[in-house]
Predict the structure.
Amino acid sequence: MKKLKASKISLIICFLAAGITGFPDKAVSKKQASVDLDFTISGKQTLETKQFEIIDTEQFKISQPLESTDKTSLDENPMGQVNSVSQFEDVRPTDWAFEALKSLVERYGCIVPNGTYRGNRALTRYEFAAGLNACLEKVNELIATGAGNLPTNEESAKLQKLQQEFGAELATLRGRVDALESRAADIEAKQFSTTTKLSGITIVGIQGRSENRADTPPRDGVRDTNDSGTNINVSNFNQLYLTTQFNPRSFLVTGLLAGDGGTQPTLSNDLILGYEYDFGNQFDLSDLHFHQLLTKNLAMMVGTKGVDMVRAFRGPNRAEDAANGPLSFFAQRNPILNLDFENGGVAFDWQFAKRASLQAIYSARDIGNPGKRAGLFDGNTTAAAQLLLTPAKTFDVSLYYVNNYSPNGSLFSYAGDSCLTAVNCFAVPGRPLQTNGFGATVNWEISRKFTLGGWAGYTNSRIPGESGDVETTNYMVYLNFPDLLGRGNLGGIYVGQPPKIVSSDLPVGNNVPDLLNGGNGSEGGQPGTTTHIEAFYRWRLNDNISLTPGFIHIQDLRKRHIAIANYQYFSTIKTHQKNKPFL
């Protein structure tokens, strides 16, 4: 009987040896696909049903529901009974473990996967339990009856030898399991939340510009005003996101933003950095919006903060990102898409065809204030829509329309001529404006290393109840060079014109070009045209940190644009660190 018990133990060791030595370095398991909340309709990602994983929440993107597990590749009866090792199609007599398998199957009747053995596949805990139980039952049967093909002394010696040979591997495996259990317990004890991920972005910029003089305000073309903001300074921009997933079809985004430093004071509004947020490093609520997948191809975003076109509209330009793309705010996107920045409201994203989508938004800036020129409908409100098309895998075009009401005469575009009914609508609020804006952006990926794109925008604004209107135009042409001199790097050259008043026949006292010319009642637009030239190179140090040197050159070709220097140089070294999401 002692011999039978020893044989029982040896048989278990044999089973462990046959299964464990087939383990690859990394266990193969059912893969659960996930995708960033986006339908990138450039052909790089297809429209599929997948579970979403939140990585970047800077833009509103369609989320996908939970992917159903594909079971077609799994055996219907993975633990079926076999009586001969020859029933395994993938087992050959030359295999090193052939004799061990033959003994387990033909002498002891242990249950193993049916049809094919798949010796190099990982052993699941369920398969291990089923196989071990079958072996134990067979051994107990042999012990109870005292008959059968019991192991001989020679076979017992072989089994003991196998146990000794694989002792180191078993000890290593036991150590790995103990380490994994300890790590899992530590993560579970220290995790931030089971449903919420915390992620963040930090940008540190060192910038400075050359000495400049300008005709401010423009009168006679004589540059008699010095630029007082030419000292080199350091600025920082910090963004934190809390993304809470309620189920595979919905999640909540909460964002906090803090920053300090920038380009002020400046002679004009033509240069604001994309990462400029000068609020004394005091954290402010930047995002509070809920996302819900209504149908397979229709998603909704609703919230009280951060519901704007920047997050609701998909940008064709892959480099539309203050952390990863151009330095200036103007070079991020068409300025008319900034008219409702950081508002509250509701937005929809509809993927109505494989290569076409439609986004729409209604938002208000001061929704928490019930006073005059505030609230959900009487304050600064925006209704907009964008049609995004991909005629070819490498070519994207977006067409957008914006209807904006501004109670103080400012478009809040943060670039060029944004104050349209007062010289400085922040110091002395101007008359309210109703604005219709039209624009288009194209992006052509000529090759994997070279992208050509650009945009153009037009606005027509009027004072409600008054005659006349004011028109502005802007444009940009850019070249992007992905993976320039290394994987993950990006070079860019951008040339364009910030928003410029090209025509204004608003009533006397509201016509900005006329006010700058002495207020004699003349009509027309700004006499000068600003040209914006920008180049940058993002050098990827690792997955989370990049270094971006660059420069910006701004020139007024006629020397008489509103509050702008004739020549202005700007250089910066921007360090971007992206913190990985963690539980």
Summary: Confidence is low (pLDDT under 50) at residues 13-80, 557-571, 579-583. The CA atoms of residues 69 and 347 lie 31 Å apart.
